[in-house]
Write a structure and sequence with these properties.
Layout (H helix, E strand, L loop, with lengths): L25 H27 L30 H16 L15 H9 L3 H18 L6 H6 L5 H16 L3
Helix pairs in contact: 2-3, 2-4, 2-6, 3-4, 4-6
């Protein structure tokens, strides 16, 4: 007599609970992107090495290399024709050569402030010096508006980047106006 056979009924898994996705912080997302980029760059480096392994190379003799200054330097431009523009341009070159400082006209190592550089380059011509300072103040006020003298503007900076830029702009402004 055939025995009754009970069909095998799969038991269902307990109902899954759904949770809302957790929002990742910016730092976590950036770390994940950085990790993915590192893996991609490592794979690209290996692929490059494999693809170029057959190319013969010769060792480089380090004595044959051209050495350059480690810091970029501004190359002097053609001198401006107008006297005030040329004065401001010479003052900028003076600061590049001797260094820039804040808090005094001239430091013992020869570094100068904006006013000190213009004064030494004017070589005693008080009229030229005054016109140069006036154009410099025009350039300062155009960008910053709140400075009331060249020394106070100069002394607000920790490095020469902005003062040198403004001095170059003042030279271009004077040249544009034919001063």
């Amino acid at each position: 007599m055939p025995t009754a056979h009970t069909p095998c009924v799969p038991t269902s898994a307990p109902p899954a609970t759904t949770t809302a996705p957790v929002a990742l912080s910016l730092e976590t997302r950036l770390a994940a992107v950085e990790a993915a980029m590192t893996v991609a760059l490592d794979e690209a480096a290996v692929a490059y090495e494999v693809r170029t392994a057959h190319i013969p190379t010769e060792p480089v003799d380090l004595d044959d290399l051209v050495t350059l200054p480690l810091t970029p330097t501004l190359q002097p431009r053609a001198p401006h024709a107008s006297p005030v523009a040329a004065l401001l341009q010479r003052a900028q070159q003076r600061l590049l050569a001797d260094g820039w400082c804040a808090g005094s006209q001239v430091r013992e190592d020869g570094a100068r402030c904006l006013y000190g550089a213009i004064r030494v380059e004017a070589a005693g011509d008080r009229s030229l010096e005054a016109r140069g300072l006036e154009v410099l103040m025009d350039a300062i006020r155009a960008d910053f508006g709140d400075a009331y003298s060249v020394p106070t503007f100069n002394n607000r900076w920790a490095d020469a980047r902005v003062p040198m830029r403004i001095l170059g702009q003042a030279a271009d402004l004077a040249d544009h106006h034919g001063q």
